[in-house]
Amino acid sequence: MALVVRLTETGGLDTLKLVEEEKSAPGYGEVWIEQHAIGVNPLDVSQRKGAVPLKLPSGLGLEGAGEITAVGPGVENFLVGDRVGYATGPVGAYASGRIFPAERLILLPDSLSYEGAASLLFKGITAQYLLKTTFPVTKGSRILVYGASGGVGQIMVPWAKYLGAQVIGVVSKQSSVERAKRAGCDEVLVFDAASLPEQVMEVTSGHKVDVVYDGVGRASFEASLNSLRPRGLMVSYGMTSGAPLAVEIATLNAKGSLFLTRPSLGAHTATAAEYQRRAADVLKAYADWIIRPNPCHEFKLSNVAQAHELLESGSSQGAVILRS
User: Which of 88, 111, 99 lies closest to 35 in space, CA to CA?
Assistant: First the structure.
């Protein structure tokens, strides 16, 4: 039997139900993974609440790591006993074991623990496409990164510094400032919507920033727009405070011909080939000590509600993982 978290409705923490299900044999192109660590991400919370559509009934979670214990027909690149991880779904990572398509698996290096993989892959691929595709960060880029002390931020900041950027981190409270500085931020600002643009102006000597990576959403959207230089790029990739309100096209013109995008991990890993390329880049950055995994908070699968509660509170200091 496998322990699985199921949703039959969206809403509060009480919608997370742990059930037992029969294990099944993998079909063509699939494997069975006994999972040792499962990543918990803000997207999971948004799906649980119904802010991001999810066809019900459903499992939850898009990131996990474990050992292959059964291989279906047509699988050529993986064997029983291989250590693997994944970071894009199909949804259903909150489980002690599961069927998974082999083409979406990532072979883990021996140096990367299951816990490390479950805290690195989803967030690392997110950081990779944001820094290298959404806005190609290069030497001299000025960037503003929200959540600089959190799971994604702790990967984005050192990677952006390696690429040569001036990194201004934004955190939600004073107690997170030092953590963001240790990650490599040149400046760290405690979020205040009214004063943030002026602070950004000050620390950039009046230049403002080339790009804002905003995972907060509604509460920060206006301040983020006002922190951009003319023809700067607003990247709204998360919504921990709710989805941003609609913006008038004329507003982007008035604020300096700004660009606005709402990227997603799914759109940047739509094919297995693109997904594997991005994952390989993340693992190379890990091997080169540019980025490190950060499994900071660990919960049993049966305590999944506590993990979601921690993320919703905004008090997490890094990656949140579940152990089966």
Answer: 99
pLDDT digits (tens, 9 = 90+) for 302-318: 999 999 999 888 777 77
Tens-digit pLDDT profile for residues 97-129: 999 999 999 999 999 999 999 999 999 999 999
* φ, ψ (nearest 5 deg) of residue 46: -65, -40
Handedness of CA 12, 303, 95, 81 (dihedral sign): positive
Give residue 84's pLDDT.
98
Residue 244 near residue 236, CB atoms below 8 Å: yes
Backbone conformation region of residue 288, classed left if phi is above 0, alpha if psi is from -120 to 50, else beta: alpha
Query: Using a CB cutoff of 8 Å and minimum separation of 24, what contacts does 295-298 make?
Result: 295/37, 295/115, 295/116, 295/118, 295/119, 295/319, 295/321, 296/119, 296/151, 296/320, 297/321, 298/115, 298/322, 298/323
Rounded to whole angstroms, the Cα distance separating 271 from 286 reads 23
Flag residues of the chain having pLDDT under 70. Answer: none
Listed residue (320, 279, 285) closest to 156, CA to CA: 285
Any bridge partners for residue 211, and if so which? Answer: 143, 233
